[in-house]
Amino acid sequence: MGKLVIDRGNFTDLTSVSNLFIDEYMPNANGEFVKIYLYLLRLVSGHSTEITTDALADLLCFTESDVERGLSYWERLGLISLSRDEDMHVNGIRMEAYTTNKFYVKSILNSSGSQVSARAVGDTFYGNYEDVNSEPALIESIAPANAIPAKRKYTSKEISAFSKDPRVQQLTFLAQTYLGKTLNSNDVNSILYMIDGLNLSSDFIEYLMEMCISSGNNTLGSIEKSAVNYYKRGITTIDDIKFDTKIRKSIYKSVFKIFGLTDQNAAKKDVNYISKWTETYNFSEDIIVEACNRTIEHTHTASFPYADTILKGWYNNGITELSQVEQLDEEHAKEVSEKFSSLQASKASKASNKSCSASLKKFKNMDERTYDSIELEKMLLSSTNRK
User: Is 133 a domain residue?
Assistant: First the structure.
């Protein structure tokens, strides 16, 4: 594939984006959150000082809740600082400029248009910020973008505000139903941390909750621990969990080992093949392993399509046990032998027929002589008289 050459042409109306943001923060962020942050940079570069979350939501075709989640995400990473009113709604945004280790105040967006300052990176703010001088304030560095967001204890005021969130209401109800008890403050903190701290969707948390409880982990603390472990590995959707659960089964590990793969470099299409073999064909591990071994033996490559061809043939022949595979091999070998013998006999017969045909043709090609009976009689009489 050839290189792409980008010509900036006459493009002069620019919004500056830090390379550090692109290299360190953007790859791990939700695409919607990236759009929010980029538009905030656009406002700053255009010297805009006023914006509302509902206007931002309308502009980006998000819900206002999505916008607030995105702002909270960037606040936790230290790229912005937020102020909130008594109802926990965002009413001020500060953009933080940064280098590798230190972050500085760059610009301010406030509903009133006045300058505001942060107390510290990562704090949750209430009310308006205090006015500050125009000199940028040095702010301590924060954890890298891929670090697990620190858990904190939510205040009663925050819990009260979050309790109005339909997601929190639903998860609280489900947790109480599944666990059969009224949640305590630690349980509520676990739910809020998963939603607000880890930015996980309510559907993801609900699925994880059901999965953990069904496996005997009957506390929100253990559910939270599972959520953190998944978050560390970049697993944040239900499909991700299902995929991860599949590849950790014995059959998947066995196939990966034969084909020289690992959990990390297994492609979804390859996993789908194995799912087909186990769920559609309903084959046991030993049959699938045998097909994979034969694939390597014949192709010397990790070819899932080739293995699928073998297993599809066995499935169509009604194979359910490995011993039947051996029997099918014997029948196939016998059939091949019979076909070979028949072919050899056919060749011999054709060769014989060809020889006879050639002799007959040669005989037919000999000069044919015709005799007149009267002339022949005269010849005989003449010969007798001479004697």
Answer: yes
**Model pLDDT, residue 119:** 32
Q: Where does a domain end: 242, 271, 295?
A: 242
- pLDDT, residue 177, reads 92
Q: Are residues 93 and 179 in the same domain?
A: no
Q: Which value, in Å, is the radius of gyration of the alpha carbons in the chain?
A: 41
**Which token pair is 31?**
């695409």
Contacts of 323 (CB under 8 A, 6+ apart): none
Within 10 angstroms of residue 273's Cβ, the number of other Cβ atoms is: 18
List all residues 6 or more positions away from 113 whose beta carbon is below 8 Å from its beta carbon.
Answer: 49, 50
Of 113, 139, 165, which residue is a domain's last?
Answer: 139
- Token match 């027929």: residue? 353
Q: CB atoms < 10 A from the CB of 82, how many? A: 19
What percentage of the chain's residues is helix, strand, coil (to nearest 5)? Answer: 60, 5, 35
Beta strands in the chain (DSSP E): 80-84, 90-98, 103-110, 138-139
Between 380 and 19, the higher pLDDT residue: 19
Range of the domain at 286: 248-322
Task: State how far the Cα of 292 lies from the Cα of 303, in Å rounded to an integer.
Answer: 8
Q: What is the dihedral of CA 52, 56, 62, 65, to 10 degrees?
A: -30
Residue type for 333, please? A
Q: Produce one character per residue of 184-216: b if its CB has 16 or more CB atoms within 10 Å, e if not.
A: eeebbbbbbbbbbbbbbebebbbebbebbbeee
Closest CA to 149 of 81, 98, 195: 195
How many of the other CB atoms lie within 10 Å of CB of 270? 18
For residues 44 and 109, membership in a common domain is answered with yes
Q: Indicate the pTM of the whole model.
A: 0.42
